[in-house]
Design goal:
Number of helices: 1
Low-confidence stretches: 15-32
Radius of gyration: 24 Å
CATH superfamily: Immunoglobulins
CATH topology: Immunoglobulin-like
CATH class: Mainly Beta
Order of helices and strands: HEEEEEEE
Strand order of the largest sheet: 4-3-6-7
Strand content: 35-45%
Distance between the termini: 74 Å
Mean pLDDT: 77
Shape: flat
Structural class: mainly beta
């Protein structure tokens, strides 16, 4: 009997370790950015307040012998302009009792929450290009000025190749309230 219990325990521990390992392989869209084979770094420069001038800087290394289309979108993650529903008064509650409002999750940053397309251009082809590990990439950067959103909140810039949206890089940033 003890041998069977030891095997069962070993199987459970192995399954738990495998589950943790698989979770660690996910994609994160937070502040911790990691580059791709094409995009190396994405930064947002400037004072982060409503209506301020900001600059997107996208650094890349282009190894391919063809023009690569790139698009960068400004997405809303969480804005103070998002209205919160108010409690609807009802006649069925006893006096002095207030219902608890249901939690309403904030929208996730998806292309449906796109505020603006900041960049829509092509990276020049690499005349010496070829497979990623064999070609010497052409390094460069795209700088694009844009005006920050009018409302305080969390936003992100997502730069990607429209031919393969999984080949992208994201940078989140926060717009603070304007000083009165």
């Amino acid at each position: 009997m003890p041998a069977r219990d030891a095997r069962r325990l070993g199987a459970i521990l192995s399954l738990g370790f495998l589950s943790i390992l698989l979770l660690a392989c996910g994609i994160s869209y937070g502040e911790d950015e990691s580059g791709t084979e094409l995009f190396k770094r994405l930064t947002i420069e400037g004072e982060r307040r409503p209506f301020a001038n900001l600059t997107l800087v996208l650094e890349y290394e282009q190894p391919y012998p063809t023009l690569i289309d790139v698009q960068c979108d400004l997405l809303e993650v969480e804005s103070e302009a998002t209205p919160r529903p108010s409690v609807t008064p009802t006649a069925t509650l006893p006096e002095g009792v207030t219902p608890t409002p249901p939690p309403i999750p904030k929208p996730r940053p998806t292309p449906r929450h796109r505020l603006a397309t900041l960049v829509g251009e092509g990276l020049p082809e690499n005349p010496e290009g070829g497979p990623v590990d064999e070609a010497t990439p052409i390094s460069g950067s795209i700088r694009k000025e844009f005006r920050s959103p009018e409302f305080a909140g969390r936003y992100s810039v997502w730069c990607y190749t429209p031919a393969d949206e999984n080949n992208g890089i994201v940078r989140q940033f926060t717009i603070s309230r304007a000083n009165s």
